[in-house]
Amino acid sequence: MRRIKAALLIAGVLSASCLAQAQDATHEETGQSLAFDNKKGNCLACHAIPNAHAEMPGNIAPPLLAMKLRYPDKSKLRAQIWDATIANPKTSMPPFGKHKILTEEEIDKVTDFIYSM
Fold first, then answer.
1. 86-93 long-range contacts, Cβ below 8 Å, gap at least 24?
2. Which CATH number do you get for residue 70?
3. How open is the CA angle 15-19-20, to the nearest 5 degrees?
4. By residue range, what is the domain housing residue 76?
5. Which end of the chain is more exposed for a tag (fewer CB within 10 A), N or C?
6. How many domains does the chain have?
7. What is the number of other CB atoms lying within 10 angstroms of the CB of residue 69?
8. What pLDDT score does 20 carry?
9. Its pTM surpasses 0.85
């Protein structure tokens, strides 16, 4: 009887662990979710973004439109997100990479999302 209870307990723990991993995988952050997250990218605080359905999009920075035309070289857009102070030392845009606000992977995701607009 004890062995059965132990087996059931172990099975329950393993099932809970697998469920937690599956839930984490489904909640993987996308470039859009990072850009809209006020604790991460928070792009909407300063930029208007098409189809963002934001109640009050930012207006202190340029709208994020036609990004492939504005940044034909995607690496320059990434560099801007990484540290905008390189191109403009007086910018109000936070250096997301330099100050470790976003990880390398998160910056890549945000860059991909912004570049797709």
1. 92/46, 92/60, 92/61, 93/46, 93/61
2. 1.10.760.10
3. 120
4. 29-115
5. N
6. 1
7. 7
8. 45
9. no
**How far is residue 75's CA from residue 90's CA, in Å, rounded to a whole number?**
21
pLDDT number for residue 10:
54
Q: Which residue has 């492939």 as its token pair? A: 68
pLDDT tens, residue by residue, 56-86: 778 889 999 999 999 999 999 999 999 999 9
Residue 87 falls within a domain, yes or no?
A: yes
- Asked if residue 93 is part of any domain, the answer here is yes
**Is 15 part of any domain?**
no
- Burial of 7 (C-beta count, 10 Å sphere; 0-12/13-18/19+): exposed
Closest CA to 82 of 64, 68, 99: 99
| CA–CA distance, 75 with 1 (Å, rounded to integer) | 63
